[in-house]
Amino acid sequence: MYLVIDLGGTNIRGTWMDHDGAHGTIQHASRPRTLEGTKAHFKDLVDRLRETAPRPVRGVGLATAGPLDHRAQKYLQTSNMPELNGFAIGDFVRREIGLPFLMENDAQAAALGEVWKGGIAGATNAVVLTLGTGVGSGVILEGRLWRGGHFTGPELGHVFLGPGRSRACGCGQVGCIETWLNKWAFERLASRCGLSQTQPRHVAQLWEQGNPAATACVRRYGHRIGLAISTLQVVFGAEAIGLSGGLSTFFQACEPYVWRTLRHRFTNRQWWLPATIAASPDPDMSGLWGMAKAWLDNG
Amino acid sequence: MYLVIDLGGTNIRGTWMDHDGAHGTIQHASRPRTLEGTKAHFKDLVDRLRETAPRPVRGVGLATAGPLDHRAQKYLQTSNMPELNGFAIGDFVRREIGLPFLMENDAQAAALGEVWKGGIAGATNAVVLTLGTGVGSGVILEGRLWRGGHFTGPELGHVFLGPGRSRACGCGQVGCIETWLNKWAFERLASRCGLSQTQPRHVAQLWEQGNPAATACVRRYGHRIGLAISTLQVVFGAEAIGLSGGLSTFFQACEPYVWRTLRHRFTNRQWWLPATIAASPDPDMSGLWGMAKAWLDNG
Fold this sequence. Notes:
Two copies of one chain form a homodimer. Chain A is an alpha/beta fold. Chain A is 38% helix and 19% strand. Chain A contains nine helices and twelve strands. The longest helix of chain A has 25 residues.
């Protein structure tokens, strides 16, 4: 039995989880924008979870925004949490809480979670994209998290997808997958298609009702997802593509357009098509599932 | 001691090679455009090489154009050698020549060769691009050839680099790295820059003399190489990038522009830069070195 926790910009969420994925209710805490406040709320949440866990806890697994060093178990220069830069959270947990500790980038944890209990459960070769404020990624090869030559793992959201983006990516490049698929890009696309309500769920509802602007938005966003997957499939040849994150709920609407673009691009290379593309049944759980899986793989 | 052979569209080349890379003179044969003719010339070349080898030959290693199945040791639907489609060359060599056999795609063999005896000798994590009529690739991770989820290995020449190419790629897609970097793309670029002699060596000579059209061509081709490497580095984070193939000789001229584009794209992610980018000291040897290395790794 493990405690699995997700630490993001403004919230900390967690629960206990068993080796079969059974888990308690998800408990929440705010995350203060200071190092000491974050430590206190994190420790408090762990104490609460430990009390509710039905069996002894063997370790803590943390999915969190990066960049981070999973080996040294510390934050690097983070994108949105400067107060945590350089924080050796592994040392903190062992010293102040007295439990073994594992941590992963949240998108890589989500990939582990999706092949274990998510939309592509059972896949052994998979690429998982987490579509949200950013676009995160995780690659599973032969059932294990693949890190390439980076100790941080590949950040596939920063693969080049094409010019035409007016705003540069946070990484400093232009044309990254992230700038075509993240929340900002989606809302801008919806707005350009003539929609005033640009939330993915609203656009999907309008699309179901046959709204032409929503149909155009669905088609174009699906095409972009297909284009991104096509580039990644040339590299990885994964059997399964998973989608997680807030925007992954939109896949239900745009699925036919994703496949249309992929089939068109792979006209002469049908064997590059993945067998499955699937959105997470519960994107909020992907990273938590993943950290239990990380413990099972490492324990 | 092994026999290492390169079989392409019009030629067969080979030599004997020792575990330290020492080798005999390269012997050549034409390749007839029939299956029976190819078999006869291949067997004849092997017999000649075997006679000149100073010590007993333990096996044959073949680097050859694909696509191919290196496990079943047969050609698949080849790009330019239809008479060899489906040819189980491994069975042929064992039965008709009586020697153990290994085969690899020529660009993957080149990658093995470049990290063993080539421009990036000693690298354990590397991406090697072979720039010629096509753009082939090989990825070395932890010293071994990496194949991803594809049994054919990734064909990185078909990763998307951007629109703007009027001619679709042979794979059926538009905007592949190959369509920006191959021989046709180079010659078209040189022509567009106002040059009448479009051979890479001529352009490099004119560039050395300060010719403005050649300078523009060098700068733009170097930028394209940098852009391709940047996309691949986000995925692989390799310590070394190797270049082989006929066009790799041009790297000497365009090296500063390759680095300029890479450094610009990785402004906020300097750790994605490779430590080394180097062209092969002898592109004709890359695949032959590689097949000796393949035997050393497998034997």
